[in-house]
Each structure stands twice: as structure tokens, then as C-alpha cells.
Specification:
Order of helices and strands: EEEEEEEEHHHHHEHHEEEEEEHEHEEEH
Shape: globular
CATH superfamily of the largest domain: Chloramphenicol acetyltransferase-like domain
Number of domains: 3
CATH class of the largest domain: Alpha Beta
Structural class: alpha+beta
Strand order of the largest sheet: 9-19-18-17-12-15
Helix content: 25-40%
Largest sheet: 6 strands, mixed
């Protein structure tokens, strides 16, 4: 019997995705875990993983197609098996979908062998149509995207277009300015009354954050954590760690949260009208800043991972997020989120809950501060954290116990190595 491969739902408000590239073709044998295709959502490019083994009998979606969530895009089966006919369903009509600004979606894909256009296609606001991954690849390789003709829907520039430009060795942009110079230069000021179009990622962020604030009654708790012992513990660990195992402050926070979530399971749950839905896995999301906005992929199964493994997987997750090589469950299965702006010197960060999760922890910078210890003023390395929690799931006293658990773990960091 044929196995259906469907467009996954990666986020509560996702209604469709764009099939960017098939990595396996009809007749290819695939094993569970193999990457079948690249999918683009409003916020990221994701690798679609095979959850069953078999042979690809049929591809029902072409590269560039915009496919509704749950629609069948391929069939797997035995090599001698005949592929059954599958009816494609129309996109689902949901409140999230109706909230999206009307946008023309061309299903046809221009042939990659077609003659290049004189300039890249732009949308109604004048923005060049380019995927986040393609934009980053172009910047790193010095490719001028304004001179490219995209092969995606509406002339959208995709990864393969950048790869072709790199292989051809043409259309190079002038050398990029040093990062310091770019950061020092002021951003171009929009003309008075001008309307700047929103990218798909920004629209998705707007929908999700509005949904969170409108439907999840937040309460907030802040706490100072003395990180002096944790920094010494980190230095000792990193002295003998491999490069990939080197622990960051955020890795310490992830591990502390994983332990605290196990001891306070309400913060690893979500609200439903039938009751609280408790998750067996502790999949901790970490914020990753991209050119077009913020995404929060998850480090999966933190409850069973050592601090060194969390550190290695965190680095890998961040790199793959920036390269557009995330997996579907890393975007859809998160159960708790950490948002950290400590690297920017931000003292306090109060986050908005990532729906349908029950809480988010905002983490600020570690700063030397004068504090009183045993009646004396001493300098300690202090870090502010802020818990935003769903009041339908937990109450303030429960939140206080949870955030105090995190504090105790970070101030006595030996427990993080157990």
C-alpha cells in the first residue's frame, strides 16, 4: 500500500508551503530519515524528512508549487507497486489564512534554462523576491541578486539560482563593506509617507505575536541570577572541551530550563479547551536572528541530553537555521522557548509567548554589579531573567517556583553536569 508524503504543518498558523526543490526523484529508494525535498514556509526553509522507507512512486507537486498543509506531495511504496490516483485538495480556509494580505501566487515555475531577465523581479513594494537562504548565500558569495532572473514563483530567486550564478562565476557584486562599517552606517531613511512592504516572515511574526497577546493572558516574573559560579564552571568545562562542545551562557540556561521543566511540567504543557496537554519531550526553542526576522527552532529531547551535547546541537541548529536546512520537527515541535539578547548588552528582555506554548524565558546580559553578600558589598556577575507565562496554564506562585528552580540550578551549576 502506498505511503503518502504530505506537506507538514510547521507552526500553528501555517496553511501552505512552497516546494522549492526535490532532492529525491521518482524511482529513487529512500530510507527513514533521508531528506526528500526543501520546503519554504513564511519564516524559514526546511528540509522535509522521510518518516518511512520505500521507493518514490510518484511526485504530485512540482518545484515552485505552493501546496496546502496536509496535501499529498509524493507517494512511497514498493518498486513494483502502481501509484494510485490522489485528489489534490484546495487550500484550507482558516482565520490565519484570511488574515494574510491578498497576494498573487503563481503556480507555474519558469524553466531554469530560460533566458535571464534584465533584472530581478520585485513585489508591489519594490522588494526583490528572494528566499532568505538565497539572500544569505548571495551576500556571502558576493553575487548581485539585482542582476539575476529567479526560477521560483513570481520570479522569486531561489538557492539554485545563486548556485548557478556562483558556478558561472558571473554577476559578481562589488566587494562587501566590512561588517563594522555596515553597522556604523545609518540605515536609509524612508521618504515621508512611504509605506514599506512587509516580508512574508514579518507578516508571519505579526500574526503569531498578535495571536499570542490576544488569546494568551500573560503574567510576568523577573529575577536576578548570580552567574559568578556558572561562569567559572563554564570556563572549567571549556578548558577541556572540543570546539563543538564549548558551552555558551545560553547553553547553560537551556540545560537549567530542561531540568526545571522536568520538575515543573506545567511549563512544558499547552492549554486546550479540554484541559492541559502535557508533552513527554522537552524541546527547548532558541531564538535565531535572520536577515528578515526571528525564528525559534527547537533543540529536541533536551531532557535526555548532556550539557556538552546541547552545546554541540545548539551550534549546529543555529548554523542550519541560517543556511535554511532546518527539519520540520525543529520548527513545529517546540514546547518551551528561550529568547536571549545578552550578546547585545540588553539588561532585561520580556518575551511574548510563542503559541501554543505555555511560557517563554527572556534572558539579558551578564553584567558585573555591586551586590550585598553576608553584609558586605561585593562585585558579582549578575543576569536578569524574565518569565512570561500563560495564566490559563499556571499561576504566579507556580511561575515563581519554576523561575527560582532555574536560579538555583545556575547558581549551583554542578547540578547541570549530572
Amino acid at each position: 500500500m502506498a505511503i503518502e508524503v504530505t506537506m507538514p504543518q510547521m507552526g500553528a498558523d501555517m496553511t501552505e508551503g512552497t516546494l522549492l526543490k526535490w532532492l529525491k526523484q521518482v524511482g529513487d529508494s529512500v530510507q527513514r530519515g533521508d531528506i526528500l525535498a526543501e520546503i519554504e514556509t513564511d519564516k524559514a526553509t526546511v528540509e522535509l524528512e522521510a518518516y518511512e522507507s520505500g521507493t518514490i512512486l510518484k511526485q504530485l507537486a512540482s518545484e515552485g508549487d505552493v501546496v496546502p498543509v496536509g496535501d499529498v506531495i509524493a507517494l512511497l511504496g514498493e518498486p513494483s507497486e502502481a501509484a494510485p490516483e490522489i485528489d489534490r485538495k484546495p487550500p484550507a480556509e482558516t482565520p490565519a489564512r484570511r488574515a494574510i494580505e491578498p497576494e498573487a501566487k503563481e503556480r507555474a515555475v519558469a524553466s531554469t534554462s530560460a533566458a535571464p531577465a534584465a533584472a530581478a523581479e520585485t513585489d508591489a513594494s519594490g522588494r526583490i523576491r528572494v528566499s532568505p537562504v538565497a539572500r544569505r548565500m548571495a551576500r556571502d558569495a558576493g553575487v548581485d541578486i539585482t542582476a539575476l532572473s529567479g526560477s521560483g514563483p513570481d520570479g522569486r530567486i531561489l538557492r539554485r539560482d545563486i548556485e548557478s550564478a556562483i558556478a558561472a562565476g558571473t554577476r559578481k557584486a562589488p566587494p562587501a563593506e566590512p561588517a563594522a562599517a555596515r553597522s556604523a552606517a545609518p540605515a536609509a531613511r524612508p521618504a515621508a509617507g512611504a509605506i514599506e512592504g512587509l516580508s512574508k516572515m514579518r507578516q508571519a511574526i505579526a500574526r503569531r505575536m498578535t495571536l499570542s497577546k490576544q488569546t494568551q493572558p500573560h503574567y510576568y516574573l523577573t529575577l536576578d541570577i548570580d552567574m559568578t559560579a556558572a561562569l567559572a564552571f563554564r570556563e572549567q568545562l571549556n578548558a577541556s572541551a572540543t570546539d563543538e562542545q564549548r558551552v555558551s551562557i545560553n547553553d547553560l540556561v537551556v540545560k537549567a530550563c530542561a531540568i526545571a521543566l522536568d520538575r515543573h511540567p506545567k511549563f512544558n504543557a499547552e492549554f486546550s479547551e479540554e484541559g492541559l496537554v502535557h508533552h513527554e519531550r522537552e524541546n527547548v526553542c532558541i531564538g535565531v536572528a535572520l536577515d528578515d526576522g526571528l525564528i525559534a527552532p527547537a533543540i529536541l529531547d533536551c531532557q535526555s541530553k548532556s550539557l556538552g551535547r546541547i552545546a554541540a546541537e545548539s551550534k549546529d541548529l543555529i548554523n542550519r537555521a541560517r543556511e535554511g536546512r532546518l527539519k520540520a520537527d525543529e520548527l513545529s515541535d517546540g514546547t518551551f522557548t528561550i529568547t536571549n539578547l545578552g550578546a547585545f548588552g540588553v539588561e532585561t528582555l520580556i518575551g511574548i509567548i510563542n503559541p501554543p506554548q505555555a511560557a517563554i524565558l527572556g534572558v539579558g546580559s551578564v553584567m558585573p554589579q555591586a551586590v550585598v553578600r553576608d553584609g558586605e558589598v561585593v562585585v558579582r556577575q549578575m543576569m536578569k531573567v524574565a518569565l512570561s507565562a500563560d495564566h490559563r496554564v499556571s499561576d504566579g506562585a507556580e511561575g515563581a517556583r519554576f523561575i527560582k528552580e532555574i536560579q538555583a540550578l545556575l547558581e549551583g551549576p554542578a547540578a547541570l553536569a549530572l
